[in-house]
Amino acid sequence: MLALYVAKPNELELRRLDAVRSPEGDEVKIKLVYGGICGSDLGVLKGKLPHANYPVRAGHELVGVIVEKGEQAAYDIGTRVVVLPNTYCGACDLCQKGLTNICRHKQSLGINTDGGFSHEFVISSKYVLPVPDDLSDEKAVLVEPFAVVVHALSKARIEPTMRVAVIGCGNEGMMAAVLARHFGADVTAVDVNPLKLETVKAMADIRTLAPAALSGETFDVVIEAAGTREAVEQAVELVAPGGHLILIGLANEATFPVVRLVRNEVTVHGSIIYRFPDDYLQAIHYLRTMPHPIERVISRIFPVCDYEQAYELASSGNAGKVVLSFREGEEQ
């Protein structure tokens, strides 16, 4: 059995392990099908996340099949599931308010506890959710990152004819643009990389621009998904009076005129991950029903043995979602 670890910053290691232990209690053993490489996976590899632990098994965007279960597990063997990679205690003051996404005791798979980039792994069935048969594996592996977008866009009521700008067309930015278009909004996607703009334009009727091409325009909703100082500062300038600014990106800091937000009564929303299972269920619904081919956000699927090439492409800035396949027969 193969498992992919970040041994230390800038060092990936594909390990051959013995069989995984049997699940106990409410646990299930999952045979992994696909695992998506996320920006936080790259951050762990590059040593940019101060809360990361090493060595750590990578991976948190996961779809697989239950192959063994504990006596109290919620789901049966053979159930195809996606995984919630962020734990919550259910007892702290924030969890008691329903804010499980910012639980004070949260741990994150692939960052400060072992993730799921392994042919098999064991996890509490509390953190898995079945996916319907008509949702392909290629769409199912997008449920976790798409739930981030679903949660973020729920902060503002996006309606037909509204003008929406998405600043930054990484994977979440591209999916945010497509979902806003699905809601009927007039969407403008903004990025410095023309390859990203071509990808998002191929998924929906979306206007695409370089940042410098925006001049004098304002939007009802602006979604900042680049995570840079420049993107945040531009996003503030683009929000129309009475509008909404949704911050998904993780910029460390930015400088902007607070008086502009105050005088124009702009609502600023910070948004982090999702509420489980609600945002997952909504993400699955959209993935099943949207006419837009959102799976085109996946640039390439590599067998896990080609992990170095996969991470290199994911880090290049010239790809959408890069996925590792753990299907039988694809390892060396």
TrEMBL record:
Cofactor(s), by name: Zn(2+)
InterPro entries linked: ADH-like_C, ADH-like_N, ADH_Zn_CS, ER, GroES-like_sf, NAD(P)-bd_dom_sf, Zn_alcohol_dh
Cited Pfam families: ADH_N, ADH_zinc_N
Superkingdom, taxonomy of origin: Bacteria
Entry keyword set: Metal-binding, Oxidoreductase, Zinc
Gene Ontology molecular function: any one: oxidoreductase activity
Family affiliation: Belongs to the zinc-containing alcohol dehydrogenase family.
Protein name per the record: Sorbitol dehydrogenase
Species assigned in the record: Geobacillus thermocatenulatus
